Predict the structure.
Amino acid sequence: MIAELLDLADRLEVETPCPCEPMPVHFFIDLTSAGEILGITPVHGKTKEKTGEPELGKMMDCPAYFPLKIKADTHDEIQAAAGGGVSVAEAGHGDIREIFCSDIKTQQGKPPKIETINQPAGGKTEAPEGDDEAAGDNWEEDSPVRESDFDSGTGKGKNQYYRHAGWLGRIKNFIDSQADLEISQAIKSFINAKHRLSNPAILDFFQLADATKAESKAATPEEKKKAKDTASKKRNAQLKQLAGARFTFRIAGQVLLKNLEFQKWWATAYAHQRDRILKVLPTGVDGFSLRDDEGSKRLTPVFPHIPNVPGGGMYCPLASFDKAATRSFGLGKHTLSMSLTTTERAAASLKWLLRDKHSHCTLGKKLVAVFWAIPSAKDAKPCPNDFADLMNEPDALQVLDFFRNVHGHAAVVSNTAHFYCAILSSPKSRITIRSWHTETLGRVNKCSEEYFHAISLPDIFRAGQKTTSPLGDMAAAMVPPKGKAG
């Protein structure tokens, strides 16, 4: 699978390392050139398919943290930068904990509560040590995990002030290096103002539903109660949405993430951090990479984070080379490790598959399938396909047309193209490959045709014709039923 992911990266011409990656941004914090808040504006990208309403959040190229770091109090011990319920702040964008030093507690059965995060006693601001990626060597494959704890980084009772301190450190590095820029001065003024969500003036920018106002506008007692309940539910939903939202700045109309000086600064900072880690990593080769760059000659015990895997949380690697399953012969965490370049390129391909709507499909709440097709010609681009859309095609028999004509040409093309599919999950912050399939599209076509012939039934509404269920129903039926623990 690693070899095929590397081949896909070459065919896609993916550039690595990647200092920026597509991430959702939900709000712009609008500032004047003097750093005063003009407003907090929702950012809309796509529209919802069912309602046609704009969907909150737009994918933007955002600075991404480097996945490796040197362990505290050591000179050469490498570990994951995130993991174990510990979050890593990123430059130029962040959530409410990082930017506003505030949290929204969403306990089950209770309305969300806004709190200011206080600095721990003793003034400690460093990130706490992770709890071994939230699982030990003997972690249970299907044990339940509260994904919200990992997504928010609030699990296990950790004080979240380190997230604000980490974000401040990142953005202050930019301000110090680009002190003469107008955007630097504006963000500096914003930081000095110490804005918090508990401040009603800040909260008003989000235009949250007000139960008191809604109740006062109603006439009868019944209408007042209904209006109050409706407004309360809407406010709670808005606060829960706000708890997971991400923000960036728009200064005098210019989005910080699109500022050229900011982009150059982050690219340089990311490269410097990567070079620092490279000097510490042990030399070696992994058998995958044919490149001659320095990253291909250095082995890493840590795989980059792969987002968008169900249950993955804030740090979800494809492999953990420092765990018991990959240790043997006295070589410790370097028994099965890969070069830094190999992990970066394999991760970039997997991230692309999980972002591209035509290359993945969720199967229930705990599984996701990724798939792609490669022509037999060397260095040819991946075959374009709409397989994910066909998973819920009302007329499932039309799926066969996809397999017969995946390239828009004759059936012989699909017979020679290679089709790859992996079923992924993340029971506890590591990716589990549930299944890995390598077939030609001709073989996939044949198996699918046999399946449809086996399950097709006469259509009682259309004489002489047959009907069947969408392929997505078949996929969902393969997912084990949810037990008491799940």
User: Anything to note?
Assistant: The first strand starts at residue 20 and ends at 25.
